[in-house]
Amino acid sequence: MSLEKEETEINLIQQVLAGEFDMSVANIGKGTQGDHSEVFFGEFDGRKVFIKTNSDTRVFPVEAAGYGLFRQHGIPCPEILAQKERTGYLNRSVLVETAVPGKRLKDLTETQDVSPLFEAAGRTMAKIHQIKVEGFGTLRYRGSSLRGDCETWKENVLGYDRDLGYLKANGFVDERQLKILTDSIQEIAEVDLPIAIFLHNDFHHGHIFSDGKEITGIIDLGACFSGDPRRDLAVARFYQTAEEAQAFNRGYGPLAYDPVVSKYLLLVAAEKVRYRHKGGFAHRMSQALETLSRSFAEVQQ
After folding, report:
1. Domain boundaries, the chain
2. Is 86 in contact with 67 (CB distance < 8 Å)?
3. Buried b / exposed e across 247-283, counting CB within 10 Å, b at 16+?
4. Which of 5, 72, 89, 247 could form a disulfide with 119 if both were Cys (CB 3.0 to 4.6 A apart)?
5. What is the largest CA-CA distance in the chain?
6. What is the dihedral of CA 54, 161, 279, 208, to 10 degrees?
7. DSSP symbol at 87
8. DSSP state, 24?
């Protein structure tokens, strides 16, 4: 991106903050950019803040409500300073949140033994999984609460298009492996899940903050979901080394060792392979393919 274009975007963000929220944020800079979102940073009232924009108007009301549930359950997270589903200046959703203290776990792994921190992260996920919500699947903010799109877990599992044919057409799975995936979906769909649990759904060491001793913040609920906590454990495990997973599981507790987690991990890995290949993320393919291969071996044991 050219410097001129970045300055134009920052000026527009300043107009949004002043015009929509009556906020004067200093030292605004451009942060990360996702498929549907952009992140800027700055300083407001003596604190570092992040200004996030998104083309999907569903995301930020859900994220704000999710952080509200976190605070009710004693889970450290950002404070929402301002949020609007659609702004006139950008025609996009905008959310302003405080930065959480500490550093990302991924930034601490090179400087210290993080096993105790992954154990603490496991305990934090267990606390998140004490949060119950209505409905299963993609969460939406309706009225004054969060609710999943589906009435049952089975409806959610079978209604999700995983496009498994794409994996076979591109040589990532053979006919036998395709059947294993299909059978795993059917097995998971039959899981008896009378109560929907709040799932972070993207719980990795870029979204977990620590001061080196304790977990100081959990961020980014843009992908949050409701359903089986073993699905959330599988998503977390996808990003972890074997040593990190051992510590994390100790902190979380017995459910982390449930064999159904491996079935979920197989499906998560298949989803990641398809998404990364379709998106052209070649540099992220090897880890997804390794996890997919390892998951096939695990579920056949």
Report:
1. 3-98, 103-299
2. no
3. bbbebbeeebeeebbbbbbbbbbbbbbbebbeeeeee
4. 247
5. 60
6. 60
7. -
8. -
Nearby residues of 117 by Cβ (< 8 Å), 6 or more positions away? 105, 108, 210, 212, 215
Share of the chain residues as helix, strand and coil, in percent rounded to the nearest 5: 45, 20, 30
Residue at 67: amino acid letter: Y
Which CATH number does 3-98 carry? 3.30.200.20
The token pair at 120 is 């603490």
Model confidence over 236-247: pLDDT tens digits?
Answer: 999 999 999 999
Q: Which of 253, 243, 26 is nearest to 130 (CA)?
A: 253
Instruction: Phi first, then psi: give them for residue 263, nearest 5 degrees.
Output: -65, -40
Show Cβ contacts of residue 67 under 8 Å, excluding neighbours closer than 6 positions.
77, 78, 79, 80, 97, 221
What pLDDT is stored for residue 1 in this prediction?
A: 54
Residue where the block lists tokens 């952080």? 67
Question: What six digits make up the tokens of 222?
Answer: 């843009």
Parts of the chain with a pLDDT under 50: none
Closest Cα partner for 259 from 177, 172, 184?
A: 184
Question: Tens digit of pLDDT for each residue in 49-103?
Answer: 999 999 999 999 999 999 999 999 999 999 999 999 888 878 899 999 999 999 9
Q: What is the pLDDT of residue 114?
A: 85
- Quick one: pLDDT at residue 112? 77
Q: 158: which residues sit within 8 A by CB, 6+ positions away?
A: 185, 189
36 near 54, Cβ under 8 Å?
A: yes
51: left (phi > 0), else alpha (psi -120 to 50), else beta? beta
Look up residue 15 and give its amino acid.
Answer: Q
Q: Does domain 103-299 have CATH number 3.90.1200.10?
A: yes
Directed axis angle between helix 260-279 and helix 229-238, to 10°? Answer: 50
